[in-house]
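Morning, I've got a small favour to ask if you have a moment. It would help a lot if you went through both lines with me. Thanks so much in advance, here it is.

***
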Amino acid sequence: MSAEYRILYFPIRGLAEELRLFLEEKNISYTDETFEDWMAVKPTLVPLHQVPIVWNGDIKMSQSKAILRYMANKHGANGKNAREALQADIVAEATNDCRRKFVALSYNPDFKNLKTAYIEETIPFYMKAFEYYLEENGNTGYFAGNDFTYADVCVFDITDNNLLLNPDALNKEQYPKLHKFYHDFKNRPRIAAYLESERRPKYANGYIAYFHGNENTI
């Protein structure tokens, strides 16, 4: 029996990691495909010439957050009503804002000089925001409603990336709710198995990145 989803992406975590985490948590089958020559593949990926590209049967999808929302809607992980879906979207978009800054820093030639400001200003700013969202949601341990949604995946992934830069950033006294959420999510049986498996790409970023793109930039 063929896998339910096919993911085409670079052999890194990047924008596809949220998709992998979601599918792993929901125990949905998928294949993770990559390529040898990006410049040869790129022209074939019309109309935007970018990845990830995901197939679900005869449905071909692009734009990682749109793909993730499709999965969430299809598999019951986008809240139980419009208000919860809105909250999930708000949180997910906040993680996107942080991700753009993380990626911009990681690929910046001046990474070594810029990382201190990111660690001291950007990471605490977003951790404080995620702490707020958890409290605003009624301290359920989730970011929307009282059950797992795709927003939980988004927060875990960007927090995990930020902890690569500063392993001490998630202070339990400063961010008790986020600290508990992160470790609870990390220890979910399917997530824990994936994180320890060879299925998970080794690097967060591409080879040309100045941070976590190859063995010399960890």
The chain has eight helices and four strands. The longest helix spans residues 111-136.
